[in-house]
Predict the structure.
Amino acid sequence: MKPTQRWTVAVVVFAILAPAALAAPAPAPPSGPLAPGIQAFEARRYEEARKFFAPYAAAHPRDADAAFYLGRTLLGLRKADEAVDWLEKAAKLAPRRSDVHLHLARAYGRAAQEASLLRKPGLAKDAHAAWLKTVELDPENVDAREDLVNFYLIAPGFMGGSVDKAREQAGEIAKRDAVRGAIARANIAMNQKDTAGAERIAQEALTKHPGEPRLRYALGLLYQAQERWDAAFEIYEAMLATDPDAWNALYQVGRTAALSGQRLDRGASALKRYLGHPQEPDAPPLANAHYRLGMIYEKQGNKTAARAEYQAAIRLDPKLDDARAALKKLG
């Protein structure tokens, strides 16, 4: 795989193997003047959030939170360059806030994925520097360390990539969170095409932390990557038997069906239920669920329903290229 291809696909791999949000506590309801915009942002109603934050940030040019949330909202809308501008402003207004530098790094990373070959190296360097600054400001920021693992694994060497540095960060993560450390190590093993090693790491961690949903979720995604469909179904259905509202697991039942062509009726029902629940921060986007449901309908021979789902996915995320390609192929 070419370096530029690795850079493009890497976020997908990391998102699969680092589902830290599964264990995150529900955030407290926002309060204060920014509350309406924050509520829209957290519900992924990004256009609504943009309409709130853009005029507010313009009217309050010294408000770091307004710039911060506008930048994150623009990133949600896939407007990476604009997101960078606002997050850079937030970083200038609040230079000691690690969360600001973390999301600035992510904006640089997204911009690098979409940039020309000439701009990629500079943006990658900026992203790396911002992640390092995040960790410098808050060594306990495990989110930033996970992002650094991702960066080191997927960036070409001339952009700062290094498997050894990824392993160093995984070790730092493990000191702070054993479960997330194990997931980071599994991510590294997968990157090195050691699927057996990745599974062994996850299974050993499950022995120490039985029932841990983050590990079970990651293990299921490893089974998907290996096309071990029955094992993937089994692990997600077991999670749902314990917690019927394990929404991420419900989505993955549908995704497994869409990818494998197996248990299509079950996959469709899982995705329909997933689409009926309120969107949660860091959960799989609803656009992706519509796309996977479209895949299932197409495999069932229902082109009309498949077309409708692909169109719904594109309305929610106009840059979801897989849905666009599927719709074009469907005719």
Residues 120-137 form the longest helix (18 residues). Confidence is low (pLDDT under 50) at residues 1-21. The two ends are 30 Å apart (CA to CA). The CA atoms of residues 7 and 154 lie 6 Å apart.
